[in-house]
Give the backbone structure.
Amino acid sequence: MEVHLPSLPLMEIFSYLDAYSLLQAAQVNKNWNELASSDVLWRRGWRQIQDLLFAFKPYGYACYISGRGITRKRQDKSVVCMVSSKNTISTWDIHKSIITWVSPVQPASIKLLTTLPEMHIAVTVDIQSTIKLWDCHNREALATSNLESPCKSLKAVITKDDPIVLAGDTLGNLYIFRIPDLHLISAVNVLPCDIDEIYCSPQKKWVLLSKKQSYILPKVFYMSSLLRRSEFSAPVSTLLEFSLCQEAFWTPRREDRITLMSRSDISKITKFKTYDLKLEEFGNKIIVKGNSIAGFLLPYYKETPNWFGVSDKDTIVCSTEFSLLLFTNNGHRLQTFQYFPEMIMRLCVDPVHVIITCNDGSMDVYAWEERSLLLRKCYRLQNRRHLPPYSFINKTLCDDVSIIQLMIDGHGPWFLMAYALNICS
């Protein structure tokens, strides 16, 4: 027989729970979900840290360099790696609110930064196309290498073979370097132009390369064919018949499924299409097949989607200026969250959270429901720092125990703002 406790005693009990336990309690039933999602409970768990670092480079790069996740073992700190206007990179411990490491001043301006949080490693590329690998403990770089042409895109991942760095240049070449010595594993011309984006699948079986132009189709490569060149006569790849690709998102926990979004400035129609990828043997060759399994058109009404993401149940979430929209991958609308007169500036999507950043710097945090396709609004983190009229929010990132925002303060320097979760030991 179920026992129903009154709301007030339950709220008192929930007030002693940490964030992980609150998320678990919210899955018990509808009543517990409503109580465990209370802003009162969640505000107790977060503290806002403001004006963390000033004087970023013009494009303001910042990436997590620590592992992610609220787990039963807990994660006791979040560390962010940043590029400063003094042409250095540094790491900052959010929970302790201190700078933990600073690199020497670099001879050439740093243009790209990526990190490999699992190994506490950062990778930079400067305007002279020099790649450097940092362990963010030692003063000097662990390794250095060079590209033949300017670098346009950069990614660091761990594959089943080795941890690697992928770099795309302006001539459409994809370079793959081994970590930690930056030994060149392969260099392949993959597109007839520069590579805008590199998207790796969850287990790094596939890598999708894209260019936001109508005549350049996204291209998917079988990662092993790029890493084990002696086993393959040529890289194994396929083109996806999807023009004007703006963004791509791999389905979490589904290694072979990816959703693409395109937008036409002429027709004002946004298109989503989901593909399943698989390897097939054709004679003595291995080929890749990309099969379209779902898709839909979103006609232009008053707003156009700017960003999107996908849940592990194939729910598509996208944001316009004033709305957060949820669809199935075939276009059936599931939920709508209205934001007018506020404006949505950024959307951050991961397997656990959906985070909306508004024009005043405040954030709404949603969680994916375990037993449905829907989103549950958890809490709002209100920005207490006044933002000037010309402020711009460039990026929002989350690692489950902290949330960071990268902003430019009017016409002044970039700064970092963070919310840190007070974790019970």
